[in-house]
Amino acid sequence: AQTVTQSQPEMSVQEAETVTLSCTYDTSESDYYLFWYKQPPSRQMILVIRQEAYKQQNATENRFSVNFQKAAKSFSLKISDSQLGDAAMYFCAYRLPHGSGNTGKLIFGQGTTLQVKP
Amino acid sequence: GAGVSQSPRYKVAKRGQDVALRCDPISGHVSLFWYQQALGQGPEFLTYFQNEAQLDKSGLPSDRFFAERPEGSVSTLKIQRTQQEDSAVYLCASSLGGGGYGYTFGSGTRLTVV
User: Cβ of A111 and B41 within 8 Å?
Assistant: First the structure.
């Protein structure tokens, strides 16, 4: 069974600094998607960044980038120039492509609470 | 609508009471998922609909949980004879289809069983 592990329950960063959130996963599949979601107190899950496993190039979205190490099954998120609005709970998630009996359901890690200090 | 709408936002139920949670997905979205999120934890999959067909209900924790989407749009998650361990946030997500399409989440319903 696929699992996702986030080993950092809480992280703290100074405003304008850089922080890296860790995520490891376990799967025997070769084709899958990885995601980082942000969940503020409003509870709505907001997609931060996604990575297709078949792509070697690391995904980037403005201040957010990932370090995808497929062989090590590692998928860390780097937030550069941290802003107060980045404070939230961050979840790493995995899913298989939809089809061939797969529903595309997301498997989430336990989450990391990010605090941004002014 | 512009987003996924869930109601009620908060629900307090007495133990043993039945509850119904509603999810109104984005119009035209084929796929609909329900997740359960315990306090301080990541969401866990409950069930999946493709249009009106419930294709996966492997995550439903017991036969007290029941979900439906009769016309392929609005979905209802029903919990019978609620118990304290049912207290959680229930999230709904929808997507245009499978493959690489992204999912849009609602803001969830926080259920507290007392």
Answer: yes
- Residues A89-111 have pLDDT tens digits of 999 999 987 777 778 899 999 99
DSSP per residue over B4-65, as a string? -EEE-SEEEE-TT--EEEEEE--TT--EEEEEEE-TTS--EEEEEEETTEEEE-TT--STTE
Q: Is B57 near chain A, with CB under 8 Å?
A: no
CA-CA-CA-CA torsion sign (B8, A94, A50, B30)? negative
For residue B101, the tally of other CB atoms under 10 A from its CB is 15
What distance in Å separates residue A33's CA from the closest CA in chain B?
8
B95 touches chain A (CB under 8 A): yes
**Which chain B residue lies closest to A96 (C-alpha atoms)?**
B99
Residue A22 has pLDDT above 80, yes or no: yes
SS3 percent helix, strand, coil of chain A, rounded to 5, is: 5, 50, 45
Measure Cα distances from B110 to A30, A111, B11, B92 in Å.
36, 18, 6, 12
User: Under a CB-based contact definition with an 8 Å cutoff, are residues B109 and B20 in contact?
Assistant: no
